């Protein structure tokens, strides 16, 4: 199916755009991602509540202005490890009209699990930021500034709920990338999950080379292996939760490694040096048009009443 055209379809508003209602936000899991989100929202004056099974994470969030409660309403954000997603709402009181979203690094399995009990109240999400640190000590309210935040638009996604979640992402400085769960999982296999495996392989191979090699390691080794410091349980849940796309992406890397080295080096360099500008676009509030924006490599930066504003890369 051809992608819908991006931009130009939505007319400029001729009257002042009304202020959009701002629902409260509840964050379940106040570690690196959830704590950072709650902190950023609270710092922006937004009513935000939160819950974590770890009392230390609750205390840290409370000290930053988050209301600690097991009652959630508005937009409820699941920011727990992937294996805990299915049970994260157990024991909590959630408003029946609340929109549930998650920050999980894999989307298809999480959405299948959540949708089984929550139906189309669920909108899957994945902010493309974070560090190799974890837990509430790693909270940083600027974590989302300028980051892409993938937000799933499935055939049965309620667009008004999608927009509510998009507004939360935009409120903390992220840019929203409309995407399907399947396309997301294929894409992040290539740009996140395989890099985690390659980093592990590089580190393990360098260790086999011996202490001299590790003593001489500098920038290229540090850059290629930064993520090996991540919690192994987090990385394992991520790559095993997205096993089929990750195996396919890894096979593509293996094919690249089989190319003659000069050809491979030139091909990689060409990707990095490909600079693209940005063109501002307006996109109607329509699933096909929004997905076209994401597929073009663009993102939403602002929500207005009748359309969203964003950008697409200019051809190099
Ligand atoms: N770390 C990253 O780089 C990164 C990036 C993008 C998305 N994510 C995703 O975000 C989610 C959270 O990752 P993180 O890095 O913030 O992890 P984290 O370990 O820093 O924090 C997770 C928090 O969830 C809490 N928790 C665990 N089970 C819970 C439950 N049942 N109810 C309430 N709280 C519970 C833990 O106590 C902890 O405070 C994961 O699903 C991960 O896939 C992580």
Per-chain topology:
Elements: E1 25-28, H1 32-43, E2 48-51, H2 55-63, E3 67-68, E4 71-72, E5 75-78, E6 93-94, E7 99-102, H3 108-118, E8 122-127, E9 148-152, H4 159-171, E10 175-179, H5 181-209, H6 211-216, H7 219-225, H8 232-241, H9 243-257, H10 261-272, E11 278-284, H11 287-295, E12 299-303, E13 307-313
Parallel strand pairs: 1-2, 1-5, 2-3, 4-6, 5-7, 7-8, 9-10
Antiparallel strand pairs: 8-9, 11-13, 12-13
The site of nicotinamide-adenine-dinucleotide has 29 residues, from helix 1 and strand 8.
The CATH architecture term of the largest domain is: 3-Layer(aba) Sandwich
Q: Could you tell me the number of beta strands?
A: 13
Q: If you compute it from the alpha carbons, what radius of gyration comes out, rounded to the nearest whole angstrom?
A: 21 Å
Helix content: 40-55%
Order of helices and strands: EHEHEEEEEHEEHEHHHHHHEHEE
Determine the N-to-C terminus distance: 25 Å
- Describe the global form: globular
> What kind of oligomer do you see?
single chain
Strand percentage lies at 15-25%
CATH topology of the largest domain: Rossmann fold
| CATH superfamily descriptor of the largest domain | NAD(P)-binding Rossmann-like Domain
Number of helices: 11
Uncertain segments: 8-19
């Amino acid at each position: 199916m051809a992608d819908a055209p991006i931009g130009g379809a939505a007319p400029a508003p001729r009257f002042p755009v009304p202020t959009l209602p701002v629902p409260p936000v509840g964050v379940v899991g106040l570690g690196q991602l959830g704590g950072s989100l709650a902190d950023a929202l609270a710092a922006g004056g937004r009513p935000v509540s939160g819950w974590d099974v770890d009392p230390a994470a609750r205390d840290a969030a409370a000290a930053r202005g988050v209301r600690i409660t097991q009652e959630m309403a508005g937009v409820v954000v699941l920011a727990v490890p992937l294996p805990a997603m299915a049970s994260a709402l157990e024991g909590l009181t959630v408003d029946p009209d609340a929109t549930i979203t998650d920050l999980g690094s894999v989307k298809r399995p999480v959405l299948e699990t959540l949708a089984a009990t929550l139906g189309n109240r669920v909108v899957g999400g994945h902010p493309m930021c974070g560090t190799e640190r974890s837990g509430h000590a790693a909270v940083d309210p600027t974590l989302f500034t300028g980051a892409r935040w993938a937000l799933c638009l499935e055939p049965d996604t309620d667009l008004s709920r999608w927009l509510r979640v998009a507004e939360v992402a935009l409120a903390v400085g992220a840019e929203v990338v409309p995407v399907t769960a399947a396309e997301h999982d294929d894409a992040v296999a290539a740009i996140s999950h395989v890099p985690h495996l390659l980093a592990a392989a590089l580190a393990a191979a360098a260790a086999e080379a011996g202490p001299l090699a590790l003593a001489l390691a500098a920038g290229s080794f540090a850059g290629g292996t930064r993520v090996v410091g991540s919690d192994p349980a987090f990385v394992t849940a991520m790559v095993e939760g997205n096993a089929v796309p990750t195996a396919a992406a890894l096979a593509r890397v293996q094919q690249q490694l089989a190319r003659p080295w000069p050809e491979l080096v030139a091909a990689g360099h060409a990707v990095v040096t490909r600079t693209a500008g940005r063109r501002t676009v307006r996109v109607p509030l329509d699933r096909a048009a929004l997905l076209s924006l994401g597929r073009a490599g663009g993102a939403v930066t602002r929500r207005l009443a009748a359309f969203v504003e964003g950008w697409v890369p200019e051809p190099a």
